[in-house]
Each structure stands twice: as structure tokens, then as C-alpha cells.
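Input C-alpha cells:
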């Protein structure tokens, strides 16, 4: 759930202006010009956004982002699972363009959005829970000794890391079966064993039991915490410094750029866990024989032995191509929706 974790972390925008103003007061002794104070004031009103608008903005932002980047997301999944039932010589001949051409020729252009309906069905609750939980966890963590709001830069980063990680774990645990179904639908090529969301849920429970809906959950929880924590902390840190150094830049531009950079950092750090999660989700799918028999760490070892260390980063290129627009879109959409829902206009 690396992408989900990363894309679901845009709640950082809620305190962007306030964080920048507070950081400016802490790290410089020079008085801030009046226009900068005026810019920070309306963004502080974002804290007054109610629970339902928070959930709505988060869910819609995630759904829009996933739909826009669905073709690259499917290519990433197809690359990630190639090593399960393909020999190494065959995999060396693959490329993004060759795989994309194969999808178009064999399955049609619409196949790039295969599984997108369940992606949206998963994205809406996941993003909503992630956005909302992040703010609530931050408020709770600020109540702990040493993590107060005026505790300094180290305390701020610590709260962002912990709050982001906890919010990602919470959202992933509550929506995991839909994520597994999405992976299996997207990994299907010419032969479609699962005919839709409801059939996939039924077939998995019938063939593998209810526990089959939670295959790979351990790898997901192990990866989603660090993924979303890195995303939140990198995003908020970059955004705060940017607003201090360039206070008159557009908030939408800042969100887009910082969100994309945070996505790249998160992808690089957690991609091996995401690849292992995908493969564990497909274990025993459609009646196929199991490939990995030794759990999470055994799967890591098997991939390194059979495909080399580079096998852990199979599909990282389409992931990079996806994460830059994907994370940027979700941050930008969330910022704009918050402005609309609070009756404000984006400061372009």
C-alpha cells in the first residue's frame, strides 16, 4: 500500500500557513513583513474545517489522483509481479513502452484502468481516514511532554513522523481487503479469473478463506507506517521552509512541488516492501501454486536469490513516473477543496 500510504498523507496542508509562520518565528529574529502575516491568517482558518468536509476533501482528492495515474499504477503492478511466474531472461527484455504496447494490443486501451473502480472504492475511505486520523494523532501527540507545538524543529518532525505513520497504519488496516482485491484485478491480463469486486471478494473467501483477504497485511503495515511518515515529514518540512524563504509563492504551486518530492523520497525508501506486499497478495490467486512459502523475510530472500537485489526495485521507473503527478495532484486537489469548502479562494 505504498502508493496509497503516500498519496493519503496530504493532510499536512491543514496547517501549512500556521506552520510556516511558527517556524519563521522560531528560526529568525527578524520581524516578518505585514503581507506575510496577512497570508498566514486565512490559512489558519483551515483548522476550523469540520470533520465531514475533512473526510470529503481527503477522499475526493485521493480518488482524482488515482484515476489520473491509473495507467502507470497498473504498469507498476504488472512489473512488480513479473518475477513470480516468469524466468529472469524473459524479464530482462521488458520495458515500460513494450509492456504498455502489449496491454493495448492484447487487452485494449481501457485495460489501463482495470481495477480502477475498486481503486476508487478503496481510495475514498482510505484517504478520508488517513487525512482525518493524521490531524487527530498530531493533536494527541502535541499533548505529550517534549512534543508540544512550540517544542522546536525536532519535536515538529517527530510529531509528523509518528502522526503520519499511525494514520497510515490505521487507514491501511481498515481498508485492506479492498486493496488486495484491487491488486488481483489489476494483475489479471488475458485470462480474467475475477469478474469484478463482489465476485473477487466471494472467490477469495471461497478458495482461500476469510484470511485470504488479509494476505500480505504484515508487509503492508510494516511499509505503510514508514512510507506515510516519510511523506508527511518531508512534505511539511519542505513546505514550511519554502514559505519562509518565498512567502509570496502560490500555495497550490508549493503543494504540488513539495508533494511530488515527498512522494519520490517515500517511493525510494519503501518500494521493496511494496513489491513484496504485491507478491504476497497474489499468492494462491486464481488457483495458482504458491511461490513463497516462508513468510515476509523468506520472500525477501527468495527474490534476492532468484532476481538479484535489483529485483526488489522491479517497476520503480513507472512508480516514479506515477508518483510525481499522483502525489502532486492529490496535494493540490486537497488544498483547493479545502479552500472551496471553507469559502476561500486559492491564493494564486
Amino acid at each position: 500500500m505504498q502508493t496509497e500510504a503516500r498519496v493519503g498523507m496530504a493532510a499536512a496542508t491543514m496547517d501549512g500557513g500556521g506552520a510556516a509562520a511558527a517556524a519563521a518565528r522560531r528560526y529568525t529574529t527578524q520581524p516578518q513583513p505585514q503581507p506575510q502575516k496577512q497570508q498566514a491568517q486565512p490559512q489558519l482558518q483551515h483548522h476550523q474545517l469540520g470533520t465531514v468536509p475533512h473526510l470529503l476533501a481527503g477522499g475526493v482528492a485521493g480518488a482524482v489522483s488515482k484515476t489520473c495515474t491509473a495507467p502507470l499504477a497498473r504498469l507498476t503492478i504488472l512489473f512488480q509481479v513479473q518475477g513470480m511466474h516468469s524466468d529472469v531472461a524473459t524479464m530482462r527484455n521488458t520495458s515500460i513502452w513494450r509492456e504498455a504496447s502489449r496491454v493495448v494490443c492484447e487487452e485494449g486501451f481501457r485495460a489501463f484502468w482495470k481495477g480502477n473502480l475498486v481503486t476508487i472504492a478503496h481510495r475514498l475511505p482510505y484517504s478520508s481516514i488517513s487525512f482525518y486520523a493524521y490531524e487527530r494523532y498530531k493533536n494527541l501527540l502535541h499533548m505529550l511532554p517534549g512534543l508540544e507545538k512550540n517544542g522546536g524543529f525536532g519535536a515538529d518532525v517527530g510529531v509528523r513522523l509518528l502522526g503520519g505513520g499511525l494514520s497510515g497504519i490505521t487507514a491501511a488496516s481498515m481498508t485492506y481487503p479492498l486493496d488486495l482485491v484491487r491488486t488481483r484485478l489489476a494483475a489479471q491480463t488475458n485470462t480474467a479469473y475475477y469478474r469484478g469486486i463482489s465476485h473477487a471478494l466471494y472467490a477469495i473467501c471461497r478458495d482461500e478463506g476469510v484470511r485470504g483477504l488479509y494476505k500480505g497485511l504484515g508487509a503492508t503495515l510494516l511499509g505503510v507506517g514508514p512510507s506515510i511518515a516519510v511523506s508527511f515529514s518531508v512534505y511539511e518540512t519542505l513546505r514550511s521552509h519554502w514559505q519562509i524563504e518565498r512567502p509570496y509563492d502560490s500555495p497550490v504551486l508549493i503543494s504540488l512541488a513539495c508533494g511530488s518530492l515527498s512522494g519520490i523520497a517515500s517511493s525510494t525508501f519503501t518500494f521493496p516492501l511494496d513489491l513484496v506486499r504485491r507478491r504476497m497478495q497474489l499468492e494462491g490467486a486464481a488457483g495458482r501454486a504458491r511461490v513463497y512459502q516462508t513468510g515476509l523475510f523468506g520472500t525477501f530472500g527468495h527474490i534476492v536469490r532468484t532476481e538479484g537485489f535489483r529485483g526488489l526495485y522491479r517497476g520503480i521507473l513507472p512508480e516514479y513516473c506515477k508518483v510525481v503527478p499522483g502525489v502532486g495532484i492529490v496535494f493540490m486537489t486537497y488544498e483547493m477543496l479545502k479552500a472551496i469548502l471553507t469559502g476561500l479562494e486559492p491564493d494564486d
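The chain has a mean pLDDT of 77. The CA atoms of residues 61 and 334 lie 5 Å apart.
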